[in-house]
């Protein structure tokens, strides 16, 4: 062992080796950085030798030198590879939180690229030649689409809820139904956000039943907001009662200095109900009823980037914009560009919204899925004898804590490999291929739902399966 350790070449000797020069050129590193990596690789080898875990050539041989540089090259590739990478989502869950939720439209992507590559008028009025506001770029579109008097954007919907409560109800009371004190992703609770904001939570009703008189009894001179939280990530069924938005709006309008605020969560700008999908309220409808302020997400049913959108009465939005916290939760130019690109499709009407991948995937017909699924299975079986494949009816999920009770009819492909288990197939597709492929596993079968796979990705998915 001592002889082997003494046989490890010195760093300066390896720096003069032609493979060191090759790694410098190929990886665009400077000598200092590559030398640091080399020292770490040698430390790895020493540790493996001492522990008896070294499986390479014997130190002192030419092959050992090659093994050193092979290890070094692998370490460099690992360190300078992106950890955030593209994934093919074959699960059928459209807003898959673990896989990045909404895919952006081509218009949104092009606008982001153009904005990121160049200077922009983010906070500059071109006509006037003076400082402007970043809020202005999407506000006009949000006003047109929702009918609100004003709007602003923050970095996510939790931030939107926090900003509204902190600015409009700090040290004041906010009345909320117990049945709406939801927990959203990552264990964030509306009640906890409210507590952090400095607002005083006043719970009314019970988990399953809240009446209008519960709100009426709770109203007093300390009440700042009556808040309704749309339960977009769960459903209470059975013996239930909740108060309609219109009734709460009339109640606040009859009170002095009380705001009606509804957190819509998923924020549908498109009426999916017309297509028989869920019962999500459209943001514009709630605004039209007379809500003072609403908040909703940008990367759920809206189909845009992660953002929290606040819309409503101008006098209230102006107060929020001017508060110091608005700077803390503001969004960057790329988020604004992605959101503007998405909203322009909405502004174009029915034809435009089908350019948004989230809406396209939600509305795709069973006939199209049937045709694509049969074609895919035929291509796979014609080119491989390694699989058994069958097609059967299934359901796709909306995902992202949205429309939990909605089951979208779909057709899924069930695959059984002749030698690999479903777990092994799933692991191979996730770890050995670029882009990585994520599907579902059910009863030792690998399940693919093409609803969330684009036509370009179908070919990549097919090629990966054929290489297994």
Short synopsis of the structure:
The chain is an alpha/beta fold and 468 residues long.
**Distance N to C terminus:** 41 Å
Number of E strands = 17
Strand percent estimate: 15-25%
* Basic shape: globular
> Could you tell me the radius of gyration in angstroms?
28 Å
In percent, how helical is the residue content? 40-55%
Q: Order of strands across the biggest sheet?
A: 4-12-11-10-9-5-8
Largest sheet: 7 strands, mixed
Mean pLDDT: 92
Count every helix, treating DSSP H or I runs of 4 or more residues as helices: 20
Low-confidence stretches: none
Structural class: alpha/beta
Would you give an account of this structure?
This protein is α/β, with parallel strands linked by helices. The protein is 44% helix and 17% strand. It has a 7-stranded mixed sheet with strand order 4-12-11-10-9-5-8, sandwiched between helices. The protein has a 4-stranded antiparallel sheet with strand order 13-14-17-16. A two-stranded parallel ribbon has the order 1-15. The radius of gyration is 28 Å and the shape is globular. The model has no long low-confidence stretch (mean pLDDT 92).
């Amino acid at each position: 062992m001592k002889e082997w350790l003494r046989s490890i070449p010195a760093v300066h000797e390896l720096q003069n080796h032609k493979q060191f020069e090759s790694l410098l050129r190929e990886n665009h590193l400077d000598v200092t950085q590559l030398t640091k990596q080399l020292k770490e690789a040698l430390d790895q080898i020493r540790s493996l030798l001492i522990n008896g875990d070294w499986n390479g050539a014997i130190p002192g041989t030419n092959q050992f030198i090659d093994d050193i540089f092979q290890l070094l090259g692998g370490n460099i590739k690992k360190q300078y590879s992106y950890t955030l990478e593209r994934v093919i989502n074959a699960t059928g869950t459209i807003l898959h939180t673990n896989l990045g939720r909404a895919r952006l439209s081509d218009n949104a992507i092009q606008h982001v690229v153009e904005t990121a590559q160049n200077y922009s008028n983010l906070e500059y009025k071109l006509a006037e030649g003076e400082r402007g506001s970043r809020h202005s770029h999407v506000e006009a579109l949000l006003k047109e689409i929702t009918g609100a008097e004003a709007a602003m954007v923050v970095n996510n919907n939790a931030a939107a809820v926090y900003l509204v409560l902190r600015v409009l109800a700090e040290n004041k009371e906010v009345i909320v139904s117990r049945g709406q004190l939801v927990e959203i992703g990552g264990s964030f609770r509306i009640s906890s956000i409210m507590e952090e904001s400095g607002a005083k939570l006043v719970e009314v009703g019970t988990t399953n039943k809240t009446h209008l008189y519960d709100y009426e009894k709770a109203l007093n001179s300390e009440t700042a907001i009556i808040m309704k939280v749309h339960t977009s990530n769960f459903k209470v069924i059975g013996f239930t009662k909740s108060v309609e938005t219109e009734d709460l709006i009339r109640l606040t309008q009859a009170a002095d200095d009380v705001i009606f605020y509804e957190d819509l969560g998923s924020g549908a700008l498109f009426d999916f109900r017309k297509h028989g999908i869920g019962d999500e309220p459209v943001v514009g409808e709630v605004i039209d009823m007379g809500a003072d302020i609403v908040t909703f997400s940008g990367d759920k049913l809206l189909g845009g980037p992660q953002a929290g959108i606040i819309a409503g009465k101008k006098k209230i939005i102006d107060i929020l914009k001017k508060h110091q916290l608005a700077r803390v939760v503001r969004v960057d130019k790329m988020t604004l560009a992605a959101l503007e690109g998405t909203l322009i499709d909405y502004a174009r009407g029915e034809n435009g919204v089908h350019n948004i991948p989230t809406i396209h995937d939600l509305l795709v017909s069973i006939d199209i899925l049937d045709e694509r699924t049969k074609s895919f299975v035929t291509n796979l079986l014609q080119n491989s004898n390694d699989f058994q494949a069958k097609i059967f009816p299934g359901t796709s999920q909306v995902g992202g804590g949205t429309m939990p009770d909605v089951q979208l009819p779909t057709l899924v492909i069930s695959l059984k490999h002749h030698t690999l288990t479903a777990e092994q197939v799933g692991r191979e597709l996730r770890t050995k291929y670029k882009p990585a492929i994520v599907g579902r596993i059910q009863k030792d079968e690998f399940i693919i739902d093409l609803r969330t796979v684009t036509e370009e990705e179908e070919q990549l998915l097919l090629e990966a399966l054929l290489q297994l």
